[in-house]
Structure formats: structure tokens, C-alpha cells
Amino acid sequence: RFHHHQIFSITCRLAHILPLNNDNDQLTWPDDATNQFLAVLKQVIPEIELLSFTTNGCFQTNLFVMNSGQHVCVNDYMIHIKMAKPILNTTNINDDRQNCIQ
Fold first, then answer.
1. Rounded CA gap, 58 and 16, in Å?
2. Domain ranges of the chain
3. Fewer Cβ in 10 A, N or C end of the chain?
4. How many other C-beta atoms are found inside a 10 Å radius of the C-beta of residue 66?
5. SS3 content of the chain, % helix, strand, coil (to 5)
6. Which tens digit of pLDDT belongs to each residue from 33-91?
7. Is 70 helix (H, G, I), strand (E, B) or coil?
8. C-alpha angle with apex 67: 90 to 4, nearest 5 degrees?
């Protein structure tokens, strides 16, 4: 017999992006980027696309929100507003879960 329960939290990170400030091996998001991210998610329930599961126990994800009837990828939005930069492969990043959120 299986039970169906809603998932209330998972450990995940936004796939294929990094904070702009990671030039000095800093893999933490600055406050302004965090505040912008939270503002996007404040009034909506995001849809999550699980892309992969890393060895450090963190899901790589794309997040989507509805804005004016259109799906908007939060990952791409963070790049668009100059809070993040794109990278090709985030699965090999060993960030000690600093970029993971729950």
C-alpha cells in the first residue's frame, strides 16, 4: 500500500546558474540576489523541474512561475536581471550545499 503525501521541502539549487560574485570561489548568493529571488516567489507557488540529483544530496532544478499567463523560468530571470551568470554544468560543483535551499 502506498501513501500519497505532499512534499513540503526538498534540498535543491537552481541549475545552470551561479552567483555573479563567485570569482573568488565564493558560492553564496548576495543579499540583493536573495531578496530578488524571494520577491519573485512571494506571491506564487512555483513549479519545479527536477533535472538531476548531485552526490552532495542536492537536486538541480529549474523553477517556473506564472507571470501574466506565461511560464517564466526563475533561473533565466536571475540571469536577465544580472543577479546570476549561466554555467553549462552544475552537477560537479562541490559547494558544500551553500547554494542549496530548502
1. 14
2. 31-102
3. N
4. 12
5. 20, 30, 50
6. 999 999 999 888 889 898 998 887 888 999 999 988 999 999 999 999 999 999 876 54
7. strand
8. 65
